[in-house]
């Protein structure tokens, strides 16, 4: 754990193998799974430069990602993070040895990536629980649904308004 000790004072908590790590980027949260000895596993866009930076808009439109094992401190950079096993109340975590075995098997593999259906949070929750879930994606889908419904309602109102004006003439 020596690799993480130097920066744990500014980043709360000492993660344990199998913990979910939520990293706070300026516009979104990136997720990783802690492997131990300061290392995490996460997904990064294939055609992007440094694998630790997942902050570009390219990652939003990427359809493929590479599974990487990296130092937590390198992935966090100047951002902050915390341990967030938020689904433990809903899903039973797999045994730590199983989580790590599954994670290590995927290192350097190319995987499909979809911001709403198969993102970094889906990836790490699939490793920890055997179930890929993402509250972040669910919120985005809900927001898209709301905007779509609102646009539809405004379109209908516009149609009714234009027809009522036609009848007046």
What class do helices, strands and sheet pairing give? alpha+beta
| Uncertain stretches | 1-9, 51-58, 137-150
What is the N-to-C order of secondary-structure elements (H for helix, E for strand)? HEEEHEHEHEHH
* Strand order across the largest sheet: 5-1-2-3-4-6
Helix content: 40-55%
Number of DSSP strand runs: 6
What integer is the average pLDDT? 77
Shape from CA axes? globular
Radius of gyration: 21 Å
Beta percentage is 15-25%
Number of helices: 6
Distance N to C terminus = 79 Å
Main sheet characteristics: 6 strands, antiparallel
Task: Explain the overall architecture.
The chain has 169 residues and is of the alpha+beta class. It has 6 helices and 6 strands; from the N terminus they run H-E-E-E-H-E-H-E-H-E-H-H. It has helices spanning 2-5, 58-61, 72-76, 96-106, 120-129, 135-168, and strands at residues 20-24, 29-36, 39-45, 64-71, 80-83, 110-112. It is globular. The N and C termini lie far apart (79 Å). Mean pLDDT is 77; it is low at 1-9, 51-58 and 137-150.
What features would you highlight for this structure?
169 residues
Chain-wise SSE layout:
Layout: H1 2-5, E1 20-24, E2 29-36, E3 39-45, H2 58-61, E4 64-71, H3 72-76, E5 80-83, H4 96-106, E6 110-112, H5 120-129, H6 135-168
Antiparallel strand pairs: 1-2, 1-5, 2-3, 3-4, 4-6
